[in-house]
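hey team, just a heads up i'm posting the complex here instead of the shared drive bc the drive is being weird again. everything in one block, sequence lines first with there labels, then the predicted structure for the whole assembly after. its two chains so it's a bit long, scroll down
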Amino acid sequence: MTPLCENNAGNNQRYISRRDFWFKAGMGIGGVALVDLLARDGLLAAEPASGPGSCLGSAGITDSPYLPKPPHFKPRAKSVIHLFMSGGVSHIDTFDYKPALEKYHGVALAGGIAGVGGDGEIIVRQGYPGPLMKSPFKFKQHGQSGSWVSELFPHMSTIVDDLAFIHSATGKSNDHVLSHYEWNTGMILMGFPSVGAWVTYGLGSENGNLPAYVVLYDHRGGPFSGPTNWHAGFLPAAYQGTVFRPVGDPILDLKPDAQYSSVEEERRKLDALASINQNHAEKHPGVSDLSARISSYELAYRMQGCAPEAIDISQESEETKQLYGLNDRVTAPFGRQCLMARRLVERGVRFVQLYSGAIVNQNVDTWDAHGNIMENHTMHAAEVDKPITGLITDLKRRGLIDETVVLWQSEFGRMPVSQRALGRDHNPGAQTVWMCGGGIQGGQHIGASDEVGYQAAEQIIWNHDIHASLLHLLGLDHKRLTYYFNGRNMRLTDVHGELIPQIVGATGKETATA
Amino acid sequence: MTRSEAGRLGLALALAFLSCVLAVPPLAAQAAEVTGKDVLPILQKNCFQCHGADLRMANLDLRTPEAILQGGDSGPALVPGSAEESLIYARVSGQGQPQMPMAPLPALSGHDILVLKKWIDQGASWNAADSARADTQAPGDKANASYDEYVERVITDEMRQWWAFQKPVRHPTPKIADSRWSANPVDAFVRAAMDAKGLTPAPQADRNTLIRRAYLDLTGLLPTPEQVDAFVNDASPRAYEALVERLLASDHYGERWGRFWLDVVRYADSSGFEHDRTLQTAWRYRDYVIKALNEDKPYNQFLIEQIAGDELDEPTDDSLIATAYYRVGPRVRFREKANPHYRYDYMDDMIRTTFQGFMGMSVHCARCHDHKFDPITRMDYYRTVGMFYGHVSYDHLLGPKEEAQEWSRRKKEVLRAIAPLEKAIAEIEAPYKRQEFEERLKRLPEDVQIAVRTPKEARTRGQELLASQFERNLDSGDEDAAGMGIDLGKIVFAASDNVDYRTSALPGGALEFAKKSAAANGRPLAPAGQRQGGFKPSPEDQQKIKALRDQIAALEETVPELPPAIEGVRDGDYRLAPNGPGDNLQPGQYDPAFGKIENTSYVPEPGQKFVVPPVHFTANGMVVEEDIKAPVVEPGFVTVLAKGDEAVARPPDRDDYVSSGRRRALAEWIASDENPLTARVLVNRLWYWHFGKGIVATPGNFGKMGVPPSHPELLDWLATEFIRQGWSIKQMQRLLMNSETYKMASSFYDADNIEKDPTDTFLWRYPVRRLEGETIRDVILSASGQINLEAGGEAFYPAIPDSVREGYQAGRWILTKEGPETWRRSIYSYWKRGMKLPMFEVHDQPDPNVTTEKRNISTVSTQALTLLNSEFTLLQARHLADRVVREAPADLSAQVKRLYRITISRAPSERELAFALKFLNEERELLAIRISASDAVDGVERNAAQAALTNFAHVMLNTNEFLYFN
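-- predicted structure starts here --
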């Protein structure tokens, strides 16, 4: 039987602590022994974490949902950096060059060009579609692959041979929020676990001292639909994304406010707490949850040292900072996010998600270029171009690129027709997504949109396909990564998902053999 | 059409399919060789339903020749080369018994039998490609099959035999020798199961543990040390019983148990999705739930009111409020008319919540194909849609009828009076707008200017599109407000979220963040109100406009205050709905794709004809024109549970109200004594909420994908008892709370038990488990003594750090500070779909977008961080320390004892006391340095002794003994 058919409300086996495992294996041990175990593993009254060395790995951690779990088969990569451009990047003004738009500039899309757009009306989000509009940006070919890139991305155009472009990514909704759900959780409705939550449920983390799934959003604020993008849905809360803030303490409530307490006091409180909890656990032998909770406090304490260290970019060289554009007011904010992302995956964090775009002043602060594609995209491209290029370059030179998958995308592309003469409305029919690292062959162009970029035309790629491929690169079979919820063994890819052969490469057969 | 007629429709479809198959010339029968390719469709059509991917009756799988050879319980089904010796042939040809397919399924046609015989006689050849095809699903299973491809799965008697579809039987109570376990029937069943497994039950917990457990469980609050003492010292043999009675009678009971129900009905205070609008009256529904539980409203009545409170013969304010059940789910609330598929998603939400929540049935799984595991067909799904389809969103006015009518009358009058005034303003403004447009046009690209200046008839199609974008708002005014008008008097709130938090300067409104962000971008934010357009009428015209506006304002003031209302539902025609946010149909228009509509208004008035809009099979709202081509499905009940003669409609017996009565028929069917699931599902939920695990471990799924009951006879006994007790929830809780099972100690250990039942499935000890996030917050406040017990009313906004709001700015949230007004019980806090309170979020607050089957209980360091470092806990630790000093001023020992008794309802042991005193003394010395160096905090000087006690109080709030049911 396939896992989907198993009658099993308890098969959420990837949320099993080491101790539960022993119990299930019939090796019950008493509470006294448990506490011994904690002490032996050096977890009780651990030394305060001080340097990066003590913040690496999961040594000494006996009981945490973040403990590494074996993949289904040999993985190609260990971690993911997800670069999400919120608001809708225009594919036809960036990576999907459409010379036909120059020819058809000013012509109605519906009924205007044979084979494209159909005869009916073009439905656009805000109504009142304009005629086709050429890109205001100049395109040139770059790299050995001869990839077309517009002048919006002068830096990224230098690394095109490292990127695999998917030009036929397609979505189901022209609504920002539903599309954010679609790409971040697999489902168009609210309430489903995010990709990062699935990945950390599946694999745990390489570093028990930091959250397994970290989110760094735009310095101006959160993206469309906010925390729903990174929440754990029906998975245990442990797998939800933890927001790291760029200034001050990175994690909410990481440290006590000075007006109430101090870290030194906290250490003393934790020692007293461990002792009291230990006595309590001894009175309740065989209740693994109690000892898991004792561990969680020690991990929280370690996190207090390790989280700030992980994103402390002052430790980086001047050269590195410049590589990410930290010396420039425009590129510095996203540059910091990118540099932190590198530091986090370097430390074994499983999934890092970055957002460009905040919904505060929606049409200004996100890529949502309804009114003026030129103004909007010029501003946002300049903010991310150098930092992203710096990130890829840095990952490469540090040898991290092979074990890290970078996924760049937006929630949808934009319409080839104009809106209010200068802007473009939402277009879920096609967007360009690129992936990089994890052994993915760079310089590829996968799939294609139609002549004007209105809809995906060749090798149509859905969110499920990208999710299935992403899991595959991490050694997870998207059909076997399940969690029982409300009567079904749920999957990130629901009942869909085809591996993208050009992304998973020759190793695409691993699923069958494992 | 009745249900059986609808069944005939399904049958008609099935026949259409069969005739298609039969129309194929009987080539195979004559052909020289018959292969798997010929046989496969016959097996697929006739056999796979019971011997295929989903079901293997008699352990027989007929999908591959290997599997057929292997056979099932009766042995190999196939002897290649000899049909006469093959069981499969014998059974389908009528030569062997029982004949297959089993009645009522139709027998194989003579043609098919012949093909099968030839195939076997010729050696039963089969190639790999046939096997691959055999894995494809039977027609009813095919996802998104169109209506002419669809064949409804036949529901067999065998399918009806599933345990949960049988009416619960009241089994005799097992005889138990041990008198401790024989008095309460619940105990007798539990003990019998334990005995069968050779498990030893735990002894009774001590009284301190029991009172704490009972308080937490029934009220979610802590007992005071005095209440603990009184109980511990109560010599009456009925002391515990009396305690349970007191707690069941407490108003705080509903505040804890209401929360669980709100989980089931996926309650939240905001709509979710992009706009996450405030559901302005949802709190009345939340209060209704609390009140219903406190009053012990019979559960069957409670369900009927929620499903059909507006269709009763004599509805009450409460029963109307109950219909908000439909409205508190996730809703897009933007351009809903332009996206008719949303309605089908909302229907799905209602079906999922109702059937999974109340009956443990996943009917929603059959939306696109017949259910993969349970006998629920896709046609059943659409029958069920039909039962709900008559309802529309409707805001009921509450309170005295006369006041509501008077308000509606006045409101309509004023609206009528205002309309011409608005028009007059528009006329005055029109030339200025035109002038402004001309100015603006000059700044636009040349091709736009050319397009606009080209005479309409001479424009190319491209120019038409270009020009229309700029010309469309010339007459109607503000482009964003187009279509935002609402049909007041019928719908009070449907279209509104009165305060737009994107432009509101209220604390927590997005405006303040917008200003910050604009500064970060180096661009000043345009002040609110400037986007109305820059035209400036002449002074005289300004005067005229002002005079008109004053008139409008004066008229608006004459409308009496809005009576209390509830965003609930009633029957009507959704196709005629007034515009909501973002909708831009002209008033009175509806989408022509719907075709002819018989009804004349959104909600029928007495005397008006009303027919529920038709439900088309496979309709999903994606393309309405396509949807309405499919046959109409009549409403009905899920076939496997239906008797066939139930009425599908029970219209209210009232002259003043028109309604189809379908929801009432559904509600009465669900809440019927005869329904095998409803009572079982609820008693199982009660068990789950009391013990942390259900008798059925999957409280939302009593089907094949669920877990079978650990104590089936107990479950049935409880279900029958529940009905016998008039569906009284409290009566059942009385039974459970007073059982020995409930009163067992959690600290009991038995190596043999651990070996046999490590997960405590058979309840040999009381299960230790963490409190939910909301209860953790409540008991911390309960311990600190700062809890604000103000009950009911509009939701309050708990204090969150600004940074949390900064990450999510949609919809309403008012930023508040820690203080008594935010220290109310958690159930009254604003539940925002898009943003959870960090304290709840880290502690597995269930997602309010779907019905909650079970809450996760995970353990993760961010929980520790929240309880260690959030301002809330640190502040409450201080209040707790102050309370301790206030209540035990004598000395440090007395204070430690008091602290223990407040937080964990028992005195410290000598060892614990000594440990605490040592901590406090050391802490005081260490803190003296810091305290003397620092200034007063919050204007209050805290000395080192207070600070030390605060730290210890904080430790106690973090202990497992405090945060768990023990």
